[in-house]
Amino acid sequence: MNLVHLAQAKSPWVLHYDASSCNGCDIETVACLTPLYDIERFGAVPIGSPKHADMLLVTGNVNHKSKRVLRNIYDQMTEPKVVVAIGICATSSGVFHQSYNVLGGADQAVPVDVYISGCPPRPEAIIDAIIMGAEKLKKKWKEEEHPVKRSNQGSDTERSTADVG
Ligand code: SF4
User: Fold this and answer.
1) How far apart (Å, rounded) are the C-alpha atoms in residues 73 and 67?
2) Which among 30, 58, 88 is the best mutation to test ligand 1's pocket, defined by most ligand atoms within 8 Å of the CB?
3) Could you identify the atom of ligand 1 that is nearest to the CA of residue 25?
4) To the nearest 10°, the Cα dihedral for 141, 41, 32, 47?
5) How confident is the model at residue 51 (pLDDT cuts 50, 70, 90)?
6) Three-class SS of residue 16?
7) Tens digit of pLDDT for each residue in 74-117?
8) Which CATH class, in words, describes the domain spanning 3-159?
9) In the chain, domain spans
10) What's the CA gap between 165 and 163, in Å, rounded?
């Protein structure tokens, strides 16, 4: 694997977007950035611009307004990229399921690579999902370097099995 691509996969630049939520998941996600949980020790670097981000962390469910914004952010990210849906709202709309303005989870707007349940998930579980996302990113870089015809037509989506709280 190309050394530059390996470095990028080992140290993903991470962007967070709240599609609409109670902010419980956002608080846990932000906790991962603090010195207490410190996701930077795993190489992940929080970043503010989608144009520089490799990984998009989505919290909250998608509604009519946030769908367009989420898609816009996703489209600005360069390939390869991964999306991590954090919490049951971003996974399947959770307690807001079938609300008048809710469309569903993050996958209603963008392709999701890693789902993590919990309401909210613990920071340890979010870190686990970010590491899974980094592995997915490495796989995507490898595929870009050596494109092969896929024989497995099944889903390539990961689900975190961490204790989600
Ligand atoms: S999953 Fe729970 S904590 Fe997270 S945004 Fe939804 S309701 Fe809030």
Assistant:
1) 10
2) 88
3) 4
4) -50
5) very high
6) strand
7) 999 999 999 999 999 999 988 888 889 899 999 999 999 999 99
8) alpha beta
9) 3-159
10) 6
